């Protein structure tokens, strides 16, 4: 049974135990309803403490049930029974109380939370809104603007913040259950605040509420759930509670059937499923605690910072003392920035800085458990670095290359022990971007691979395993659609039309603005190297080279695909002239492209390349490709990703 009841004197303790995250499925709802009935029947009871076994309070409704018709008892009805119970219920919250889990806590008369707990209504990230009273109860406990932020923003808040807003009645420094039992013993002496639904809503600053509602609505760009969340909060502020509850439930059930929420549930499970690799079943390795990074440029400094932010000890190797100092400055700058943005607490900052060493002495890597090279993208340079690493690190130390395009099998073949080498392809900025491609060379050992995966987990990254090919999953698909876009330019489209079509589809930015932001010179240098190796396709498009030859390296140069002299990207007639001249030179008659034409072409190229990647075994699941495209390039999450779209159509 996932629900058990124990009585200690005048307090009953209801324990929910449904590993791994105590999700509320039909059995748990039924168990809770039974617990209300049983505790209502207990004589001489003062209060009921509700707590959960395992690492967390309830993480929400069971998402796996969303594809099926809802089965009674329904959560709103169970929560109404808890709210109306004969004695007050006290929620003891540890870990996370999310979605239906927080709604369960909101139906309790009091909430006690461990200081480390997090509380949130993340339904919006699954294309939903709360469906068990969250939008109606929350603004009766916390001010409406904060309620709106939680419901339509979807980000969980820390228990201390929740306590400031009045969402938590008691913050426990130690064990939440123990504190809740002590709290429960005092309920008789407290003023009963009454059932939440009977309280008035709090909207002390309607102007701030409206401003936030506008901001969140604008940010939604094509996604339905944030708009519905704003509407639900507005109803909660204006309608009587029962009507607002009924409207919330209707919207929740409607959104559950919306293709966007099905797509988002696909992404939720795909992101977790991508971390599974059959050959690693049963292979247990500890997460590395001492990590080396070679190369202190943007990528190396980002990787070092990601490791430091995860609490690891990092030694960064550079070639000279000056370069080591520059790397030190870069990393401390990133940590300082993380401090200012509240990513790290002030009391942790000094400890994280103390975990970092930048040096030009290779022997400093002698006790590293994993070393990641992030040096210049050149085969011979990386080969030399790996040889040096093999000589200074112990044989059990795993070596990783952060190459984006080089052949990892060929790199491994240059080593005396190729089984030590794994590919760890980070995305820039490495301390911010969530995705990590784990590249699996032919001869890599299970231990090296599992160590790469353990690092990814320790860094909180979303990992996807990729086989060895040119560009792995992300960059290979990007190269394919980038080429398709360039062909569309020659055939009649403009960069601004391509970008507008992508933004309209839901990308945060079009491919040309993205290239301008990253800088056009690095890709140009790579194209020149490839040309020198005879790797230039017959239908090569010269337009980006012509821009680079004119010094148009993107945003940092003030000009790229766009003109940035005003600070904003402005379409540039000069670029249109370059494009038209290239069309004429190749004898291509330019024709108009609609946004639909553009997106249809981009999608079909992504899907075709994805299919090839699957056929070749570079990715093991279509869903892995969706995870990559969403997290590397901002493919709109609520569409489910290119492969999901292909399979759903
Ligand atoms: C909702 O509540 C609607 C209500 O308003 C209305 C109802 C009427 N269901 O992420 P992890 C699984 S909507 C089913 O790797 P972590 C997950 O798939 C819901 N399964 O761990 C994984 O399984 P596996 C609102 C769930 O420590 C395992 O648990 N709630 C659910 O990194 C471990 O998960 C949310 O959106 C679920 N609700 O993170 C919260 N949650 O081992 C969603 C997790 O087979 N959950 N699983 O791969 C999370 O954000 C994270 O899982 C959490 C733990 C932070 C809790």
UniProtKB/TrEMBL annotation:
Metabolic or biological pathway, per its Swiss-Prot or TrEMBL entry: Lipid metabolism; fatty acid beta-oxidation
Domain 3-hydroxyacyl-CoA dehydrogenase C-terminal stretches: 471-564
Keywords: Fatty acid metabolism, Isomerase, Lipid degradation, Lipid metabolism, Lyase, Multifunctional enzyme, NAD, Oxidoreductase, Peroxisome
Span of domain 3-hydroxyacyl-CoA dehydrogenase NAD binding: 291-465
Subcellular location: Peroxisome
Annotated GO MF terms: (3S)-3-hydroxyacyl-CoA dehydrogenase (NAD+) activity; enoyl-CoA hydratase activity; isomerase activity; NAD+ binding
Gene Ontology BP terms: fatty acid beta-oxidation
Xref: CDD domains: crotonase-like
Residues forming coiled coils: none
Enzymatic reactions: a (3S)-3-hydroxyacyl-CoA + NAD(+) = a 3-oxoacyl-CoA + NADH + H(+)
Assembly notes: Monomer.
Listed name of the protein: Fatty acid oxidation complex subunit alpha
Organism field: Roseinatronobacter ekhonensis
